[in-house]
Design goal:
566 residues; six-stranded antiparallel β-sheet; Heat Shock Protein 90; 18 strands; 51% helix; Beta-Lactamase; alpha+beta
Length: 566
């Protein structure tokens, strides 16, 4: 991973605490909002229950007062009807008010229609049966008026005759439409609803859209969970009536006045809308800040980090390629400037060390060349005093080998260093010297050589191989030897070929057992990690193949003396 990418990644990592803090803050805000909303809907449900309790208590007190009226206790229809009509006029939200005897027959009443004639009996109604059975004030269930046809619910109170016996029931019918109109207001909407249901789970009132839901059964799953509760609470539900997900605060029938279910629901989408918007703004802000931070980190990383690092890397690569003159030229007090200066100082120290090493190596090469020349001169002097032709020949061959080594050292010394030797030019010079010393009439060995650079070890080994093979070719080539030396480079492999027109002796063996010279050739080829091959027949041909270790310079096309490479 590049430094610029690491800086960008680091910038992203620095934002993680901000993201974590935002997440924790979001979690805390949502928890607080959830608690606040649940408390709010629970309070509103209690407020609706309180209003319902005031209505119920008012009706109860009124019915209690009526139960003490002697006209009702004595079952006087005319006087009783007059009283009820007066009360009906004073309470327009009452659909009807009446008194029924113990059998459920209504003997005096007043309703919205205000028509003559008896009202239908009410003996089968829940509120009548419950009041007669318990002897207490009772709130009924959902019903439809038999004369008015209006959805309503009833409240009833038993009364006694002068003998103290339960004589019947006084009841009030409250129209649900009028009650909804009185309780409706701008606080109720699609997201904020209020529901009142009777003890049987039938909806009496739901705001808004009361007419749409009145008389419908309360959703069974929600009713099963809330109606059995023993205390007020809250619940999170999706209403089957309209599909809106709400937080609902409810008063169960067990604790509600008149055994009614009262619930207030608040839509989560509306309740959490501002918080969701703030959260989205925070997320967008964090993403934008992260993107800006990463872009800036990338830009400044490239300028402040990548550029100086690439500059230092470029200089070190030039050093690796042999250009020790390269410098970063970085100045300043920054860490990268100090690092660049340290690299420059290191390069200066290395340059001085290499210069000193070159001086030492040049001196060493000079001393080695002088020593080899001395050895060669001593061999020549010694050979003059030797009368045995075989011994003289051995001395001459030794002189040739020493001269080959001296020539290789001279080439290294002339090239200005010891890193590599231009072996093509060296081959020409060596073959020329051998031709001058061994061939008559100024004849020359034919040399065809591709440009080739060798390190000193390979150059020295191959020089000895060339000396032995060319010497043998001239020596065993007869009176008119024709020696051809070829140096070819292809696909990273070097091939040295030495060929003459004279065939090899029948007992010649390439494994080196034919003589010391071939043994040395075999040893040198092994040092080259190469292979020696020969062909017999009409002419003698030796081929040495190996892979050069020194990098080959593509610009090397002509030898030092300006002659084209054959």
């Amino acid at each position: 991973m590049s430094l610029s990418r690491r800086v960008v990644l680091l910038a992203g990592l620095t934002l993680l605490p901000v993201v974590a803090l935002q997440a924790v803050n979001e979690f805390a805000l949502r928890g607080a909002r959830e608690t606040e909303l649940r408390a709010s809907v629970a309070l509103q449900a209690q407020q609706v229950a309180a209003a319902q309790e005031r209505l119920t208590e008012g009706v109860r007190l009124m019915l209690t007062a009526l139960s003490e009226s002697k006209d009702i206790r004595n079952a006087e229809p005319t006087e009783c009807t007059a009283i009820l009509r007066a009360l009906r006029t004073a309470h327009p939200d009452f659909e009807a008010i009446g008194v029924a005897d113990r059998t459920g027959n209504v003997f005096c009443a007043a309703d919205r229609l205000d028509t003559a004639g008896p009202m239908p009996p009410v003996g089968d109604r829940f509120y009548f049966r419950e009041a007669m059975a318990t002897g207490r004030f009772t709130v009924g269930t959902y019903a439809v008026g038999r004369r008015t046809g209006v959805p309503s619910f009833h409240m009833a109170m038993p009364y006694r005759n002068p003998q103290g016996e339960t004589a019947g029931v006084i009841f009030v019918s409250i129209g649900l439409a009028r009650l909804a109109a009185e309780l409706n207001g701008p606080q109720w909407s699609l997201n904020r609803v209020m529901t009142v249901a009777d003890r049987d789970g039938t909806i009496l009132l739901r705001l808004p859209e009361a007419a749409r839901f009145v008389g419908q059964p309360f959703p069974e799953d929600i009713w099963r969970e809330t109606a059995r509760a023993s205390a007020p609470g809250t619940i999170d539900v999706t209403s089957p009536l309209d599909g809106v997900r709400r937080i609902v605060g409810y008063i169960p029938p067990a604790t509600s006045p008149g055994g009614l279910y009262i619930g207030v629901g608040l839509g989560r989408a509306e309740a959490f809308g501002p918080l969701d918007s703030a959260t989205m703004r925070g997320i967008v802000g964090i993403v934008a800040a992260a993107a800006a931070a990463m872009v800036l980190a990338w830009l400044f990383g490239r300028r402040l980090i990548a550029r100086p690092v690439n500059r230092i890397i470029a200089v070190t690569r030039r050093w690796r390629d042999g250009d020790l003159s390269a410098r970063t030229a970085m100045t300043g007090s920054t860490e990268f400037a100090q690092l660049g200066s340290a690299f420059d100082e290191l390069a200066d120290d290395l340059a001085r060390a290499f210069a000193y090493k070159d001086v030492l190596l040049r001196e060493l090469n000079h001393r080695i060349m002088n020593s080899l020349q001395t050895v060669s001169s001593l061999f020549k002097l010694q050979s003059r005093s030797v009368t045995d032709p075989e011994a003289r020949q051995q001395f001459d061959m030794a002189v040739g080998r020493v001269n080959s080594m001296a020539m290789a050292y001279r080439r290294m010394h002339a090239s200005g260093g010891i890193e590599s030797v231009d072996f093509a030019e060296f081959l020409r010079e060596l073959c020329h010297d051998l031709s001058q010393s061994m061939l008559p009439d100024g004849r020359e060995c034919a040399v065809v050589a591709d440009p080739l650079l060798l390190n000193p070890d390979q150059a020295m080994s191959l020089a000895l191989v060339v000396n032995e093979l060319v010497t043998n070719a001239i020596k065993h080539g007869g009176a008119d030897p024709e020696v051809v030396v070829a140096l070819a480079v292809a696909d990273g492999t070097c091939s040295l070929t030495v060929r003459n027109t004279t065939p090899l002796p029948p007992d010649f063996r390439v494994d080196g057992r034919s003589g010391f010279g071939m043994q040395m050739v075999g040893a040198m080829v092994r040092q080259l990690d190469g292979r020696l091959e020969h062909t017999a027949g009409g002419e003698a041909c030796f081929v040495v193949s190996f892979r050069p270790k020194a990098p080959q310079a593509t610009a090397l096309e002509t030898p030092h003396d300006g002659r084209p490479v054959a």
